Amino acid sequence: MPPTVTLDDIRAAAIRVSKIARRTPLQDVSVQAGTGLVLKCENLQPGGAFKIRGAYNMVAQLTDEERRRGVVTFSSGNHGQAMALAARELGAPAVVVMPTTAPKVKIDGVKGYGAEIIFAGTTSTERRVRAEAEAQKRGMTMVPPFDHPWIVAGQGTAGLEILEQRPDVATVLVPIGGGGLAAGVAAAVKLSRPDVSVIGVEPAGAAKMKSSIAAGHPVTLDRTESIADGLLPVRPGDLTFALVKQFIDTIVTVEDQQIVDAVLWLESSAKIVVEPSGAASVAAALAGAGAPGPAVAIISGGNIDLERLEEFREEARARSAGR
Questions:
Q1: Is there a catalytic annotation at residue 104?
Q2: From 111, 192, 300, 320, the catalytic residue
Q3: Distance from the CA of 126 to the CA of which of 53, 166, 220, 234 falls in 20 to 30 A?
Q4: Where residue 92 sits, what CATH number does that domain have?
Q5: 75-108 burial, b for 16+ CB within 10 Å, e for fewer?
Q6: Of residues 51, 106, 190, 208, which has the active-site annotation?
Q7: Band of residue 1 on the pLDDT scale cut at 50, 70, 90
Q8: Is 19 noted as a catalytic residue in this protein?
């Protein structure tokens, strides 16, 4: 049988990652949003994103010898930071292959946790190929960004927390990049509370999971393009696709302008600084997905350059002045 992820796997991961991952708070913004909306603030995790859950869950399960040889991954930034942090905490050398277009804030984060950085291309495929070559050459263990049972189980711990924190939740909105968070959260939620709806959210310019579900198998897009740099894989994982197909009720897409508007709305209305990838679920909620709620939107990350945030503000002011 192909690998899968069980509720027991996710519960075991919750115990394991409690050594480093925070039980992030929920922030109720229903009044500001005009609908029943609650934010799961994974931007408050060590490394600024949910990724520490999966990365630590995997590195912690490696043998002493595997950790001694080191770990390698490919990442646009957040998973790289998380794996670097997990490796530092568990005493393993770490290498992160990043795109040449990676935001400075994410590059600095990876460096800050002591990992070696290699830049390779702009697509997830180019990064993966280079990371696999480094793993083979150096005898390192690959810690993939999403398509591994231990990674998915770790991400799923966020779903368990949501159910414990808001037993009355009706809908969970979760962003989809490669699908690790969506697959893990959907499995945790549906295996515990089948009555709760789970909605996946993708950028319109990077709808690889929605396209794959429509095709009935994982598909590789010719290209992806979105302001949400963490949601740009051209293909979902085989495991993440299978779990999303099994457990997610529907997938919606949001335009880049909706994502930018959500970033600015979160800053002004919720006083939360969020990166575009982390705001995708909120963009969908503000567009009506998950209503009437109560809906919990997962803010997956908060790693945004302040210069980029100011660009968003200036663009919004220019649009407002042009009306």
A1: no
A2: 300
A3: 53
A4: 3.40.50.1100
A5: bbbbbbbbbbbbbbbbebbbbbbbbeebbebbbe
A6: 51
A7: low
A8: no
